[in-house]
Design goal:
By secondary structure, the chain is of the alpha/beta class. It contains 13 helices and nine strands. The strands form two sheets. The protein has a six-stranded parallel beta sheet with strand order 5-4-9-8-6-7, with helices on both faces. A three-stranded antiparallel beta sheet has the order 1-2-3. Keywords: Cell wall biogenesis/degradation, Glycosyltransferase, Teichoic acid biosynthesis, Transferase.
């Protein structure tokens, strides 16, 4: 076990990716303190697909290594930590963490900026956040359809409203590198990639039923709903095999 130098979070390295060993409650407390510090913190919700992508792409791995907090979102990451004898207490799902942050932020009157997805989804998400968490101010929103030439304008718009939280929904291959590249310029205390969370919050799609969640098989539900995801999902068995074959090397930094 190692302790992260920035947040003093106990972590376990999974193929070089430092995964937090905190439960949801303690993770939330760390992030509340992060907001109070006003220093930029990138939160990555790690799953096996992202770990495998980092192993194949040094640039992506560097993004992971530079993040202030990586939580065990994917069931496979939780399993791997347990398998190598450094168990994490529970899965910290990004979707749940997003809601926990919004709920906690009500009493502090935090401001949140929503970035990503389609114009329709981002509008519906903002409305739903307002309904669910009236103590939170949605201080800004923008869809995810912008290129590198617009990054400067997007960053300026976010800085102008000075949010406490920034949620970015642009896909793991885009959102994490984008936050990592610009986090110092953005200056937001807590920045987190949230993938398809806006689709669920807005009502466009449904989260996996409780049964799939209890069985830790949300990935299977998503695959059944979107068979086109099967190529990405091939990383799951590859990850499991790699962990079992290289058990002694999994936690080597």
């Amino acid at each position: 076990m190692t302790v992260d130098k920035v947040t003093n979070v106990p972590t376990v390295p999974i193929f070089g990716v430092q995964v937090s060993r905190l439960n949801m409650k303690d993770t939330l407390n760390v992030l509340i303190q992060a907001v109070k510090s006003r220093r930029p913190h990138q939160v990555i919700t790690a799953n096996p697909i992202m770990v495998m992508a980092a192993l194949e792409d040094p640039v992506y791995m560097n993004v992971m290594k530079q993040a202030e907090l990586i939580v065990p979102d994917g069931t496979g990451v939780v399993w791997a930590a347990n398998y190598v004898g450094h168990p994490v207490p529970e899965r910290v799902a990004g979707y749940d963490l997003l809601h926990e942050l919004l709920a906690a932020g009500e009493s502090y009157h935090w401001k949140v900026y929503l970035l990503g997805s389609t114009p329709e989804v981002i509008q519906a998400t903002a409305q739903r956040v307002h309904e669910l968490y009236p103590g939170i101010t949605v201080c800004g929103k923008r869809d995810g359809f912008f290129g590198p030439n617009e990054d400067e304008a997007v960053i300026a718009a976010i800085r102008e409203v000075n949010p406490d939280l920034l949620f970015v929904a642009r896909g793991a291959d885009t959102q994490e590198p984008w936050i990592g590249k610009y986090k110092e310029q953005l200056g937001v205390p807590v920045m987190m990639g949230v993938g398809g969370s806006f689709d669920v919050i807005s009502g466009k799609t449904k989260r996996a039923p409780k049964l799939f969640q209890k069985l830790r098989a949300e990935w299977l539900y998503r695959l059944l709903k979107e068979p086109s995801r099967y190529k990405r999902m091939l990383a799951l068995p590859k990850f499991a095999v790699k962990v079992m074959r290289e058990k002694e090397n999994v936690t080597k930094v």
